[in-house]
From TrEMBL:
GO terms for MF: N-acetylglucosamine 6-O-sulfotransferase activity
GO biological process: N-acetylglucosamine metabolic process; sulfur compound metabolic process
Classification via SUPFAM superfamilies: P-loop containing nucleoside triphosphate hydrolases
Organism expressing this protein natively: Dendroctonus ponderosae
Name under which the protein is recorded: Sulfotransferase domain-containing protein
Length: 167
């Protein structure tokens, strides 16, 4: 289980999130409280207590280089599992065209940067799979699209949760 007390990383994330309200809207349970009292979602003590209610925590990051995620895997006390989602670079670039944070940013919308990042992530993935075989997994976006139920079951097994029929 991941400790819910916010570390320095958590503090920096909260500060970042205060300028981007849409980050918290993805958490429907939390956002219901935010809508009622907007300031509560920036209150570290409230977030510590709220997060303790849930046995599993998940975080989605976009464009985080995999070698940086290794620091999380090194901390055994966190019991973190990392899933790298890999997509055909053409699909990634097409998707990024429709995001307000990407167009015009060379490290986001230029194929040579994306491909370089993918090569770096591939090297890191090989190393992480050897070092943390039960805590690291790579998935191809295209495989999820072709076999959503099978891949969902594999992901749930990987993170140690039973796949409920309603999922």
């Amino acid at each position: 289980m991941i400790p819910t007390k916010f570390s320095n990383f958590g503090f920096r994330y909260i500060e970042y999130a205060t300028t981007r309200n849409n980050l918290l809207r993805h958490n429907k349970l939390l956002w219901a409280h935010c809508e009622a009292d907007h300031d509560i979602c920036w209150d570290r003590e409230f977030l510590n207590q709220f997060c303790r209610l849930f046995p599993f925590q998940s975080v989605k990051t976009v464009r985080l280089r995999l070698n940086l995620a290794e620091a999380l895997l090194e901390l055994k006390s966190l019991n973190v599992k990392v899933i790298l989602l890999i997509r055909d670079p053409r699909g990634t670039l097409q998707s990024r065209k429709h995001r307000d944070w990407c167009p015009g940013e060379p490290d986001c919308d230029q194929p040579n940067y994306l491909c370089s990042d993918m090569v770096s992530d591939y090297s890191a993935a090989i190393r992480l799979k050897e070092l943390y075989p039960s805590r690291f997994r790579a998935l191809r976006y295209e495989d999820i699209c072709l076999n959503p139920y099978e891949i969902a079951e594999e992901v749930f097994n990987f993170i140690g949760i039973t796949l409920h029929p309603q999922v």
